[in-house]
Design a protein that fits this description.
Elements: E1 17-27, E2 40-47, E3 55-59, E4 75-80, E5 86-93, E6 105-113, H1 114-118, E7 123-126, E8 137-144, E9 150-159, E10 172-179, E11 185-190, E12 205-208, H2 209-213, E13 220-227, E14 235-243, H3 244-247, E15 256-258, H4 262-267, E16 276-286, H5 290-295, E17 304-307, H6 331-343, E18 351-357, E19 359-361, E20 366-368, E21 371-372, E22 381-383, H7 384-396, E23 400-401, H8 408-415
Parallel strand pairs: 17-18
Antiparallel strand pairs: 1-4, 1-8, 2-3, 2-5, 5-6, 7-8, 9-12, 9-16, 10-11, 10-13, 13-14, 15-16, 18-21, 18-22, 19-20, 19-23
Length: 416
């Protein structure tokens, strides 16, 4: 929890909190499809302390034709020790691409508290409805999220995998599982399926190090190899155990792993493996957040451009976005003030270039798509957002709205 504690400030108060990652799986789901199996998805809701309603946190991926799904999608929620946080998990059989849950078959739900989840190694509970005593189970496990900000890019291939298909070879994919504190493994990632081959090469993929091993390079990672079947009942080929410390050494003879099927190993004398899984690439980089960049001294430079084309309406009429109102700001003024109030804190010199386009300029009425609001052809900078607003008001009284809408000169100006 220490990695997520707020800064110490004497004389103030801070709520003790940490972030936890929730992993979900289901067993013995009700089969709602006639010619196949259900395609389950889980929706998570949370009712915060003091609230009367559940709010949707997110949805897992949909797993086709599977009554015993392990979902790779994780949910990260804030855990407050001193508050009662109610969770609701709803399971659906997905029937279309619609996000409207009423268009999918409801398979059951579970209501519990976040405290119940974090105090159990794995919280296993029966799903309630739509069929009583269906035997359907939902399992939820949790782990405190580490502060590790690294990302790892991995690429694997395999050689001489077992042939699983009667009329072909195999359609292999890999699944990656993180070791939990109780010794169990939780699915964290699946590769794509490579059709009809015993020597697949999978695409590179990038995941947070936290997702694979919670930042612990020596924590075990289980890689399982499967032969994909359209029925959802995939054939197990074999597995191996690795660590990120091993993988971080990159492609080498030490990172070629036997893909072992323990059932075949017990039955077959002289069994060595069901193929090999080889690491082709491992690249670990720091994944910086926006806050990291800001604390590191990053500046945001904002250039403002205003549309002075006649499509905005006559400034003398109340329906115009540029309406010159005596007592209230028009919509352009409101937008400039709202955005500028946020942006200005990230710009140390508080100088903002402000341009206009689509207007006729005095004195001869020349059309311009790149003019400076302050009227200074040598210097487009305005001092602060107040300076931009003043320059805008000045331009509004001196130019004529015209057209056409040509934004390219402003883009080129910023680029230069």
């Amino acid at each position: 929890m220490a990695g997520f504690m707020p800064a110490f400030n004497a004389g103030s108060a801070a709520i003790p909190a940490t972030k936890v990652e929730l992993s979900i799986s289901c067993r013995n789901l009700v089969d709602m499809d006639v010619f196949s199996k259900s395609d389950p998805m889980v929706v998570l809701y949370i009712k915060e302390f003091g609230s009367q309603t559940f709010k949707e946190v997110g949805r897992t991926e949909t797993i086709n034709d599977n009554l015993n799904p392990d979902f790779a999608k994780k949910f990260i929620v804030d855990y407050f020790f001193e508050e009662s946080q109610k969770l609701k998990f709803e399971v659906y059989d997905v029937d279309s691409a619609s996000r409207n849950l009423r268009e999918h078959d409801f398979l059951g739900s579970l209501e519990c508290t976040l405290a119940q989840v974090v105090t159990e190694a794995v919280l296993r509970k029966p799903l309630q409805g739509p069929m009583k005593n269906s035997g359907a189970i939902i399992a939820v496990s949790s782990e405190e999220v580490s502060t590790c900000k690294e990302e790892v890019t991995l690429r694997f291939n395999a050689k001489k995998l077992d042939k699983k298909d009667f009329f072909g070879k195999s359609d292999p994919f890999l699944s990656f599982h993180k070791a939990m504190e109780d010794g169990s493994y939780i699915l964290t990632y699946r590769t794509e399926v490579i059709k009809n081959t015993l020597n697949p090469t999978w695409r590179p993929f990038t995941v947070p190090v936290r997702l694979l091993c919670n930042g612990d390079y020596d924590r075990s990672i289980k890689i399982e190899c499967w032969d994909w079947n359209s029925s959802g009942s995939h054939d197990y080929i074999g597995e191996c155990l690795v660590t990120l410390r091993e993988l971080s050494k990159g492609s080498s003879a030490s990172n070629v792993f036997d893909c072992v099927n323990s059932a075949k190993q017990k039955k077959k004398k002289g069994y060595k493996n069901s193929g090999t899984i080889e690491l082709m690439q491992c690249t670990i980089v720091q994944a910086y957040s926006f806050l990291d960049f800001v604390k590191g001294g990053m500046q945001l430079n904002c250039t403002i451009a205003i549309d002075f084309t006649a499509s905005n309406g006559n400034p003398l009429t109340p329906t115009s976005l540029h309406y010159i109102a005596p007592y209230s700001p028009n919509q352009y003024t409101q937008a400039l003030a709202s955005v500028g109030e946020i942006i200005k804190d990230y710009d140390s010199d508080q100088l903002f270039p402000a341009l206009g386009f689509g207007a006729r300029l005095p004195p001869e009425g020349r059309v311009s798509h790149e003019f400076f609001l302050n009227g200074n052809p040598e210097n487009p900078y305005c001092q602060g957002i107040d300076g931009v607003l003043a320059a805008y008001q000045q331009a509004l009284h001196t130019v004529q709205l015209y057209g056409p809408t040509n934004f390219a000169p402003v883009i080129n100006h910023v680029s230069r």
